[in-house]
Amino acid sequence: MFRREALKQMMTWRDSLNRRPLILRGARQVGKTTLVNEFGKDFANYLSFNLERNTDKALLEMDLPTDDLVNTMFVRKGMRKKSGPTLVFIDEIQNSPSAVARLRYFFEDCPDLYVVAAGSLLENVVDVKASFPVGRVDFLPVRPCSFREFVSAIGKESQLAIMDRQELTNAFHTEYMSLFNQYFLVGGMPEVVQHYADNTDIIALTPIYSRLIRAYMDDVEKYSRSNKTSETVRYIIQNGWLQAGATITLGRFNGSEYQSREVGEAFRLLQKAMLLELVYPTVSALPPVLPEARRMPKLFWFDTGLVNYVGKVRKDIIGSEDAIFDLWKGRIAEQVVAQELLTLNYDINQKRAFWTKGKGGQGAEVDLLWMIDGDLLPIEVKAGHNSHLRSLHSFMDESNINVAVRVWSGPFSVDDVRTTEGRKNFRLINLPFYLVGNIEQVVKRYA
Fold first, then answer.
1. Three-state SS for 47?
2. Which stretch of DSSP H or E encloses residue 149?
3. Of all helices (H) and strands (E), which one includes residue 272?
4. Rounded CA gap, 60 and 105, in Å?
C-alpha cells in the first residue's frame, strides 16, 4: 500500500508534548484503518479493536479503572506487553457512546498511552448520545488521496520534484496534464487508486465504485432519524452526483418532489458523514469569510472518481481533449479543484467558499475563495483569456490583495493585468490543474 501524507501528521502528533487521544475523521473507506495499521508498525505494542465486533465493544464498555482496562486489553489480545510505547486503536468508535466518553480518561489517567480512534458519522453520536470529551482529544481529517499522492501511488513520485518548481513544468505540461486527467478520472479513494496502480485498468474499477456507493447508502441510513430522511438520503446518493459543482436549491432538489426541510436534513446527515459539503457564498471581497446561508449553495462531493462513475461519463473523459472543461459546462472542473484545496491542510474545520456580487452585481461570481496567511485569494476555474474573467476583475476592484489565480488546462504563466474598470493592477497566476496542490507556495512567491 502506498504511503499517505496524513502519516506525517500522525508522526507529528506522536512526538507532540501536548498529545491527546487522536480522532481520525473522514468518510468510510478513505483509508483510516490502513493508515493506523501502518502507523502502528513503529510501536512496541499495538492493540487494535473494532467496535463493530460485539466482543471488542463489550471490552471497551467494561466499568474498570483505566490501568486495569489496558491490562485487560493485552489479555484479550493474547499479547505480552513489551518494553516500549503502546498504541491503542479503537475503530468504529461511533458504535459505543461510552467508549467515546472514555477517551477523556485515557487522556487523564494514562498520558503515556497513545490512543487513536476512528469512526464514521461520529458527530451524530456526539449530538445525541455521548458525553464528548471536549478539549481532551485531537482531530485529524482523513480525505481521499490528493493528486500528489496519486502520482506517488502509480510510481511517478520522481515527477513531484519538478512540480515543486513550477517554472520547469511547461516542458512537461502535456505529460502532467495526462497524469492529472488520470487522477480526475480515477479519483482519490485509496482502494481504487491502489487497484489502478496495480492494473492500470479503468473498467476493473467498476465493482469497487459500486460497492462503495452501496456501503455509503447503507451506512448513512443507519443514523437517519425518520423514514423520510432515509428516503431523501437515498435519493441524493443515487441522483445528486451530477450536480457536483452546481449551485443548487434545496426544495425540489434535482427535480424531485422533496421539500426544502427534508432535503436540508438529508444534506446535513451527508455532511456529517463527510461525503459532501454545501458551500455558501460570501458577498465581501475582504476577510473574514461570512457565508450567506440564505443564498443558494454549491454542492461539492468528496471524490471526483465517484462523481464520474455515478454520472456515467468515464467514456466521455477518455475521448475528450479537455474533459475537465468539456463535461457539465465545466462544473466538474470546479469540483476537482475544490477537492484538491481540501488536501492543502489538516484543519478539521476547514470550509470552502465562493464569492458573489451584492445586490445589483449582475450575476458576478468567483468560483472559489481560499485563505492564505489571512488574505482572501480568489480562484477562477476557467478556460479562455483574461478579458473573459469579468467577475474576477470585479472582485479584485473590491479586494485588498494584488494577486489572483486562474486554474486552467494551459501551462503555467503569470500576467500583469489591469481590471476592466481600470481601478487596479494585479498579478494573475495561470495555474495548471496539476499545480493546485502547490497553490500556496506559488501565490507567496508571486504576490
1. strand
2. helix 147-153
3. helix 260-272
4. 12
Whole-number Å distance between alpha carbons of 421 and 39:
55
Distance CA 333, CA 328 (A): 9
Q: How many domains does the chain have?
A: 2
Separation of alpha carbons 101 and 122, rounded Å? 12
If asked whether residues 119 and 248 sit together in one domain, one would say: no
Q: Is residue 218 part of a domain?
A: yes
- CA–CA separation, 49 and 59 (whole Å): 9
- Domain annotation covers residue 265: yes
Amino acid 133: pLDDT: 78
- The reply to whether 93 and 216 lie within a common domain is no
- Of 117, 141, 165, the last residue of a domain is 141
Angle between helix 227-239 and 206-221 (nearest 10): 160
Other CB atoms within 10 Å distance of the CB of residue 261 = 12
Same domain? For 266 and 137 the reply is no
Whether residues 45 and 129 share a domain: the answer is: yes
Residue 110 shares a structural domain with residue 229: no
Please provide residue 70's backbone torsions phi and psi, each rounded to the nearest 5 degrees.
-65, -40
Tell me if 158 is assigned to some domain.
no
In a domain, 196, yes or no: no
Q: What CATH number has the domain bearing residue 60?
A: 3.40.50.300
Name residues of the chain where pLDDT drops below 50: 127-129, 360-361
The Cα 212–Cα 306 span in angstroms is 9
Rounded Cα–Cα distance for residues 147 and 190 (Å): 12
CA 332/CA 341 separation, integer angstroms: 14
> Are 141 and 348 within 8 A, CB to CB?
yes
For 26, the domain range is 6-141
pLDDT tens sequence across 42-88: 999 999 999 999 999 999 999 999 999 999 999 999 999 999 999 99
d(CA 369, CA 189): 25
How far apart, in whole angstroms, are the C-alpha atoms of residue 289 and residue 378? 12
